[in-house]
Amino acid sequence: MKRVTRIAKKRVTTKGENESRFSIHDLPTPAILYTRKNPVIVEWNSAASKLLGYKPGERLYLKVIRPKGMRARRNVSGSKEGVSMGIVPHTTGTGEEKLIEVINKLITIDGKEYYLEWLVDQTALVQSQLSQRHFYGAVTRASMVSRTDPKGNITYINANFIKISGYTQRDLLRKNHRLLSSHHHPSSFWITMWNTITSGKTWREEVKNKAKDGSYYWVDTLIIPFMDEQGKVREFLSLQNDITQRKESEEALAQYHSSLSATLLFGKMGSAVLDLKTLQLTVNKELFQLLKVPFPEAKRLSLKSFLKTYVQSDFIPLINSKIMEGSKGLTEDRKVVAMEMLTYSNRRIHVEAEILFNKTTALAIFHDVTDRIIAISDMREKEERFRTLISDISIGVVLQGPRSEVHLTNQAALDLLGLTEDQLLGRTSYNPVWNIIHEDGSEFKSEDLPVPRSIATKQSVRGVVMGVYRPRLNDRVWLLVDAVPRLDEKGDIKNVICTFNNITDLKAAESSLHFTRFTIDHTSDAVFWIRPDASVADMNPAAHTSLGYSAEEMLKMSMADIDLSFTYESWARFWKYLKDKKTATSISKQRRKDGAIIDVEISSNFIVFRGAEFNCSFVRDITERKKSELALIDSNQEKDMLIKEIHHRVKNNLQLISSILYIKMNGMLQSEMKDFLEDTRLKIRSIALIHERLLQANSVNQVDISDYLGKLISDLEMSNTRHELRINIEQDIEPEYMNLDTAIYCGLIINELVTNSIKHAFVERNVGNIRIVLRKMGDIHHLVVSDDGISMPNEIGVGHTGSFGMQMLEIFTKQLKGKVEITRENGTSINVHF
User: Fold this and answer.
1) Phi-psi region of 747 (alpha: psi -120 to 50; beta: other; left: phi over 0)
2) CB 142 within 8 A of CB 127
3) What's the CATH number for 701-834?
4) Handedness of CA 251, 254, 255, 256 (dihedral sign)
5) Among the CATH numbers 3.40.50.300, 1.20.1540.10, 3.30.450.20, 3.30.70.330, which is that of 375-508?
6) Which residues of 573-586 are buried (b: 16+ CB within 10 A; e: fewer)?
7) CB atoms within 10 A of CB 100
8) Which residues pair with 41 in a beta bridge?
9) Cα distances (angstroms) measured from residue 738 to each of 143, 370, 708, 810, 811
10) The domain at 128-249 falls in which architecture?
11) pLDDT score, position 288
12) Distance CA 391, CA 409 (A)
């Protein structure tokens, strides 16, 4: 739901008060006089007599007095369309010397020529200008000095530079001069500057810069390039003089002349003389330009005709009554009458008429206030929009008067302060109940609060952090407060706009951040914050103590000085990689101050903090770990040698047993015993083959199964005792490394099944085919041994006793935690899943 700003009734600004604030009647009455060419004063108004220091009628028909030695004629400095203007020295009736700006126009009244003069006191402004010149000379003797590298990065600044810009050395060093840009000058301005100084020439211009607090200042800048022996720029020296006050004076004076000449004189001010006896008007050309109508042939008009022709009828009775009111001034010393009229061209004209000293005429000055009224309407509309705006935003907004009293507030401010409108409106910034404290817990003095400070200094006060106790909620809220004063035309405080944000959560996060920093500062690992140019921005105590440096020494170093892995070129490549990947872990070596080299493990992290890029690196000294790893490697090598020796001896012993069985078997006559021993020998041979392959592969417990089974199958083919039988063994075995136990049981199963096929599947046949397949599907291995001989009898199978070979197959499969499937179609196929 849309918030509506609630204003206490007694504080609501009335329409009448608004009109008085933006009144069209507050136009200053111009000082006007008529003189002859000599110059002799013929007539003037009260503003002119007051400016020149005389009583009404005192200097009429006499020349204007000037200081001795000055020429009597006007010192006119410029003219436009028959109008002259310039500074004229005058001596007032009290003897005071003034510098009066005269805007002078030659007019004709009743066939006689007169000068119509507008007078403006410029004494203070001229004296201010002279004072500025002296000030500028003093500033010139206290230059701002800076040095930059060939890319414009600041390498040195002096104390005046810091004082005027508001930045610290830490803010500016290694930063580009563009940090100070106000964006006032076009890009062509800077291109010309850069082309000039890079060609070895000096460059001088007036530059508008931006200070750290957001304010602007002007400097007269001279940049001198220094070249090396090859003619390339080595560095730039910049000498700057603060000319802010001079520029402001120049701009103010230029703006004044522009507005006075263009607005008041050339088309915005008209005049007329009214004969109070005949009610005849003598008018000037500017009046009809003001009315947006052609200038009539007759320069003298009757008042009635003038009103009827040019003024809307609704306003005529009011004007007549004002004239009657002014006529009463004939018996008084002086009478000034103000009125308004609306013309048929819909221009609203403000008129000020004054009875002159001859008591028979009145001088009327006409101002076109149409644009001013429109501006007032716009102002009121903007004020209403302002009220609507502050009611909709989430930050607190309070409008306070020149004594800090609260005039206006939005709902967000009431919610943040935990107050109602009645509790806040009319109060000042300071209320002891609110117990306003600093971040360190000390209480604010009333004069130190943002709004009173802004009123006292007439300057903006920004970024004040304060803790405010909220009695109704019984808690404390932390606010970030800005106070911006609004001044009237005289430079006095009109009001102060106070805005504040709730930063309570931010303060909690800041407290957490302090805890994090405390933790990092007390960790044993080194932590570095490194800039893109490899320079060290910050570190924790462990970072510099582990390398034997002080913190001050470390802040002047770069990673190329510390880490043996980096040069400035390799760092640039690493930074690009880190910025892309965000994190990186590496092993490196770093050099201590005493020259010792230490091994480190570095975890690098790319971060952006307040718009600046950093590499936050956590560095751990792993020198002792590296020593332990080397010792462990040596120990493992010894163990590997021992295991290989064991494999070698087991292989030799198994081969010895196999040889003994072979010799013994050749001496036997019974075929059954002979077959048994042959099977046993082949099993021993399959196990010995495992150890042989481990030795050849330099592995402790991993066997290339395809290589091992290929050699085993080849041995089985060669062990065929039926010389009339030709056996073709096809193998499809995927390469894979298996652990020792699994490989042994796979070899024993294949040995058992192939031997069984050779013995029983190809009775009374001369040719037989055996196929061996080993594949892994997911986590399951499939070992298939099939032949195209006589199918295995049904009474022989898994779980059936009576077959020694099947019992052995079941035992080996159980060790593999697998299962056996038998298919008896077109021979026999045995599938072992494990």
Assistant:
1) alpha
2) no
3) 3.30.565.10
4) positive
5) 3.30.450.20
6) ebbeebeeeeebee
7) 20
8) 35
9) 81, 99, 10, 21, 20
10) 2-Layer Sandwich (3.30)
11) 78
12) 8
Whose tokens are 């500028």? That residue is 136
**57: helix, coil or strand?**
coil
Burial 468-481 (b: 16+ CB within 10 A, else e): bbbeeeeeebbbbb
What rounded mean pLDDT belongs to the chain?
A: 76
Angle at 413 (CA atoms; ends 408, 414), nearest 5 degrees? 90
Residues 6 or more apart from 78 whose CB is under 8 A from it? 84, 85, 86
Cα-Cα-Cα-Cα torsion 427, 433, 439, 444, nearest 10 degrees, comes to 60
Using DSSP bridges, classify how beta strands 396-400 and 493-502 pair: parallel, antiparallel or unpaired: antiparallel
> With contact defined as beta carbons under 8 Å apart, do 154 and 172 qualify?
yes
- What is the three-class DSSP state of 77? coil
Residue 482 pairs in a beta bridge with 499
pTM over 0.85, yes/no: no
Angle formed at CA 333 by CA 329 and CA 336, multiple of 5 degrees: 50
Alpha helices in 459-612 (DSSP H): 504-521, 541-546, 551-555, 559-562, 568-581
Please state, in angstroms and rounded to a whole number, the distance separating the CA atoms of residues 66 and 91.
5
4 vs 397: CA distance, rounded Å: 13
- Give the phi and the psi of residue 221 in degrees, each rounded to 5: -110, 130
Nearby residues of 44 by Cβ (< 8 Å), 6 or more positions away: 31, 32, 33, 34, 52, 60
Q: Which amino acid is at 95?
A: G
794 vs 24 pLDDT, higher one: 794
What pLDDT, in 10s, does the model give residues 425-470? Answer: 887 767 777 888 998 889 998 888 999 999 999 999 999 999 998 8
Residue 109's beta-bridge partner residues?
A: 112
Helix (H, G, I), strand (E, B) or coil at 751: helix
DSSP class of 93: T
- What is the C-alpha separation between 224 and 147, in angstroms, rounded? 10
CA-CA distance, 317 to 697, in Å (whole number)?
A: 123
Q: What is the DSSP letter of 803?
A: -
β 461-470/493-502 pair status: unpaired
**How is residue 369 annotated by DSSP?**
-
Would you give the DSSP letter of residue 429?
S
Residue 336 corresponds to which amino acid? Answer: V
29-121: CATH topology is Beta-Lactamase (3.30.450)
- Pinpoint the residues of the chain covered by CATH 3.30.565.10: 701-834
Range(s) within the chain of domains with CATH label 3.30.450.20:
29-121, 128-249, 375-508, 523-621
Fold of 523-621: Beta-Lactamase (3.30.450)
Beta strand ranges found along 65-96 (DSSP E): 78-80, 83-91
The pair of structure tokens assigned to 548 is: 């034997």
Predicted local distance difference test score (pLDDT) of residue 67: 42
Query: Tell me, what amino acid is at 540?
Result: N
d(CA 91, CA 72): 12
Neighbours of 728 (CB within 10 A): 11
Q: Which residue has the tokens 């609004």?
A: 486
Least confident of 316-330, 530-544, 718-732, 758-772: 316-330
**In degrees, to the nearest 5, what angle opens at C-alpha 742 toward C-alphas 737 and 747?**
95
Phi/psi of residue 130, nearest 5 degrees: -60, -40
Contact, 771 vs 786, CB < 8 A? yes
- Picking from 295, 377, 312, 304, the residue whose alpha carbon sits closest to that of residue 346 is 312
Could you tell me where the DSSP H helices lie in 421-466?
421-424, 450-457
The encoded tokens of residue 292 equal 């947006």
Separation CA 669–CA 671 (nearest Å): 6
